[in-house]
Amino acid sequence: MSRVLMMNSNPVYAPVQKMALPFILLLSLVVLAGCGGSKVQTLPVQEPEQTEVREPEPVAPPEPQPETRAVEESPAVPFVLQNVYFDFDKYDLTSEALQTLADNARVLKAYPDARIAIEGHCDERGTVEYNLALGDKRAKAAKDYLVSLGVDASQISTISYGKEQPLDPSHTEEAWARNRRAEFERR
Fold first, then answer.
1. Which of 131, 60, 54 is nearest to 91 (CA)?
2. How high does pLDDT run on average in the chain?
3. Which residue has the higher pLDDT, 68 or 124?
């Protein structure tokens, strides 16, 4: 009994007590309204009429409409850009890099609204400053070649990460070769 008296005299419980009675009444009305019966009317089932089955008449194929999809949705040229790799301490483009960049140029010309960043990367050998400069030269060499192939220069930005973002953190020749790259990121 003392607990009930404490709740009644405690000002913290006053708003709860004021709302309790209307809530209980509303809940009771909802429950009673849900119990109100309504009759379900059943309709007689009619048997379907027998109809004769005919072969469909041939329909001429619709005339081809002009393609209205945006180039971004073109399945003919998927948006896939490949990395370009460099020799140690070089930013010259190898014959393999030239072929890869030609493929990348084809993709970028098919998507003229696409924007990319070419990221120049280096292996871990050399100072931070030297590798940032070398990464910049690698990214710019890739961009310049793409522009020479007809890609709009405004589609491409460049950035150098030097040796700060290795693709392979190992300390082997193979890892270093994978880290000396120009990487293409869509923006």
1. 131
2. 79
3. 124
Q: Is the dihedral of CA 155, 77, 91, 172 positive or negative?
A: positive
- Residue 151 amino acid letter: V
Please state the length of the chain.
Answer: 187
Q: Where exactly are the structural domains of the chain?
A: 2-27, 72-186
CA distance 168 to 158: 22
- The DSSP output letter for 97 is H
Characterize 15-38 residue by residue with b for buried, 16 or more Cβ atoms within 10 angstroms of its Cβ, and e for exposed: eeeeeeeeeeeeeeeeeeeeeeee
DSSP 17-45: HHHHHHHHHHHHHHHHHHH---PPP--PP
CATH superfamily of 72-186: OmpA-like domain (3.30.1330.60)
d(CA 122, CA 181): 7
Q: What is the pLDDT of residue 161?
A: 98
List, for residues 20-38, the tens digit of each pLDDT value: 556 566 556 555 555 555 5
Reported as type and span, the H/E element at residue 159 is strand 156-162
Packing angle, helices 128-148 and 95-110, rounded to 10:
60
φ/ψ of 13, rounded to 5, equals -85, -10
pLDDT in tens, 10-23: 555 556 566 655 65
Helix (H, G, I), strand (E, B) or coil at 69: coil
